[in-house]
Amino acid sequence: MKILPVVAALMLSALAATSSAADGLITVKSPHSVKDTMDRLEAAAKGKGLNVFLRVDHAAGAKKVGKNLRPTELLVFGNPQGGTPLMECAQTSGIDLPLKALAWQDAGGQVWLGYNDPQYLAKRHDAGNCAVVPNLLKALAGLAADAVR
User: Fold this and answer.
1) SS3 letters across 54-113
2) Res. 3: pLDDT tops 70
3) What's the domain count of the chain?
4) Which tens digits make up the pLDDT trace of 108-138?
5) Cα distances (angstroms) measured from residue 68 to each of 64, 90, 102, 133, 138
6) Cα(107)–Cα(134) distance, rounded to whole angstroms?
7) pTM for this prediction
8) Which residues contact 25 (CB under 8 A, 6 or more apart)?
9) 5-19, 37-51, 62-76: lowest mean pLDDT where?
């Protein structure tokens, strides 16, 4: 019966996530600060053997030019094992790789974690039947769930 809590957690994660077919962005509410959400996402990505290429603090960048921006951070991550099969289906998908996730705080103080929907990316690059897309979707959903847990 250990599978029931796992199934319940996945179902709750799916319910908490919202996806906009129009823009291809999947967003999940986070109970953590932007920094903590990204720290957790980075740890989860590294824990799954993914490379973390870059972390950008957009608010810190804005401050350097005298602008105010609510907390907003970007993480760029991935590995050739996941990205290459998508590029084999459509080499132009390389423009959207490595994968990216953005954490931000909205005007109401809610923190969100968003990432590109692999199904949207596949459609964008005319690779809708690419076999790796469900795997990427599952992996990203799992990483996001770890980050906001």
Assistant:
1) EEEEHHHHHHHCCCCCCCEEEEEEECHHHHHHHHHHCHHHHHHCCEEEEEEECCCCCEEE
2) no
3) 1
4) 999 999 999 999 999 999 999 999 999 999 9
5) 9, 39, 18, 37, 35
6) 33
7) 0.86
8) 19, 114, 115, 116, 117
9) 5-19
Give the structural domain span for 139.
Answer: 3-148
User: What is the length of the chain?
Assistant: 149
H or E stretch at 30 = strand 25-30
Contact 56, 73 (CB under 8 A): yes
Assign residue 107 the CATH number of its domain.
3.30.310.70
Does a cis peptide bond (omega within 30 degrees of 0) precede residue 80? no
pLDDT score recorded for residue 11: 44
